[in-house]
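Structure Section — protein described below
Tokens — whole-number codes for backbone shape
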Amino acid sequence: MSIVLKKNIILLNPEGNCEELFEELQLPFSTTHQHIPVGDHLPENPFEYANTTVVIKLLRMKAPHESLCYLHVKRVISIEGTLLPLPQSKNEARNFLKRLSNRQHRVTTAVGIRYDQQLSSFVVASDVTMKCLSEKIIQQYIETGEPFEQDIGYNIMGVGQNLVSRIDGCKYNVAGLPIKILKDFLSEKGIISASEEAEVHGH
């Protein structure tokens, strides 16, 4: 049994490991990059912030083709409900990782699709407990560049996996894209379907 692609999928502004993880679904896709402002008046709640951002960007994207399925992902990191800004400098990365050290934080991901003049989304949250991070470990990790390459400030598909002691919830969500949940979501919305044919087909 294989997967039949009912609509071609376009990833809108993919970040971090999104493309690499989407490839694990073995579905053909392409990407598009657009500058889409979302404004300053977004909810402070991580769940609502991520979901609202996804919805706004899909609604405001330029020149969408109704025959295609556009997919956008927004991930945020929070501690006790407070959103954490991503580090932009080595000093900010040091403070960011110190704040995560030896405690639990939450990774919240909103995934939305726009297709057939419709828009649907879902949100997944996973709790992550970090190891106790020494100054030396933090400095070494900053030098890898990963804190500036990922949309949650670290990468469990890279060196960052050594910083984590426990994940409660979807590991793929923490990695960059909750692909198992996404696959069911795309099937439910009719973007993909199961087939007895041997290969993945797209339009």
User: Anything to note?
Assistant: Residues 197-203 have pLDDT under 50 and may be disordered.
